[in-house]
């Protein structure tokens, strides 16, 4: 079921970046049995910026080659086709899936974490005697599903980030609560859809869990451990995570403490060069042992007792938890304000459009029906001309109050624009929508609107239409147009009435 939901998400969302063209050309070339070094070198060399980045990585401390690499053919001959292919894929996909930091999502931080994890996985693989030329790119893309979800459902994913900061619940659990699936599944589906090898997308599907197929279980664990090291370098729970990694590597894989310490330190040293190649500022990234030594030195200067340290830590944690909760509530209020009309408090036009798109998509997918009501205030221009705009605003606010009182919590009531309103009625057929429309019309007609000492009477004209799966046109524009035509038919027929258009009748 989650696969169907993910496919619908990827299919229906226009904001999602398309697969990078040069990445597809590289993959197609490598798959061909008769492909040559020259052909791959030509594709990569056709992009000067990509070429420069690859040569910078090839000459970095990450590979520590004995001689300078000054061309793509030479890089291919020294590093090999698979290594160079994966470096190239890393660059082109990362550049395609970037954006401006907004809504609580920091793209530079995301890629800093991803690149550090990729370096960590590449260095860990030989220590665990795992051979795979895809390790770097697989680890780099292990959380690509996060970016996809953010592009597709920005507001909802901002809620995921807020909840994570406030509660500390694992992000996969929060994603499943909100979307019905997590970023592992999304990453698996999109990379499979893009045509990347199974050796890349299958470990990504399981990198936070323990149910990976046997042939990919070690690769999935390498991804998880490397991601944990990256979190330690760029997160807030460094000591806890480093202890977790050390325990796994010593107890499960029999690595000695010196090797584990050297591995963790080398990630920082090697990541700095790679981060700069991706045009991301590594900041003041230091080996963990250096960070620990500096922290111990500062701690010695404080000369605090153990009890004082415990109290300081407890207080700092409480302050951080309170700040995270306050931030979550503030972000929720901001999102709510951004989706509401300032005058009436109803949902605004943008929210209505987004919700109708989502309602239509789910109706088509799950065989649900819904109805749409649109209405506006009759002769509203005369109200403004005769009584003034402030009293006109009171009339509009009264309409919103009446409609809100008569609709259900699940109904979406929006100010469509000016004196025009719209109501989305989930799981409501045309007959049910018509009954509600008539109740609204009669209630408005009976309402005596007290507007700054004057009593104003108003009426509304209403248009109603419906959507029935496999019978109605599955286009949002067609649904709005039908409701709009019904509304104007009410006006043409004398106003203060309800007109229905059944979308199932051709």
Secondary-structure element order, N to C: HHHHHHHHHHHHHHHHHHHEHHEEHEEEHE
Shape: elongated
Residue stretches low in confidence (pLDDT < 50, at least 5 long) are: none
Strand line-up across the major sheet? 2-3-1-6-7
| Number of distinct helices | 23
Intertermini distance:
33 Å
- Report the count of strand segments: 7
Largest sheet: 5 strands, mixed
Strand content: 5-15%
| Overall mean pLDDT | 84
Q: What Rg do the Cα atoms give?
A: 29 Å
Main structural class: alpha+beta
The helix fraction, in percent, is 55-70%
Structure, described:
The chain has 506 residues and is an alpha+beta fold. The protein is built from 23 helices and 7 strands. Helix 2 packs antiparallel against helix 3 (37-45), helix 2 (21-31) packs antiparallel against helix 6 (81-96) and helix 10 (154-167) crosses helix 11. The longest helix is centred in the middle third of the chain and has 33 residues, at 306-338. The two termini are 33 Å apart.
What are the main properties of this structure?
506 residues; five-stranded mixed sheet; alpha+beta; 23 helices; 7 strands; single chain; two-stranded antiparallel ribbon
Quick structural overview:
64% of the residues lie in helices and 8% in strands. The protein has helices at 2-12, 21-31, 37-45, 48-58, 72-79, 81-96, 107-127, 135-140, 144-152, 154-167, 171-179, 183-194, 198-205, 217-234, 238-251, 257-277, 288-302, 306-338, 349-366, 380-387, 389-406, 430-446, 476-492; strands at residues 370-377, 412-417, 420-426, 449-451, 454-456, 460-467, 498-501.
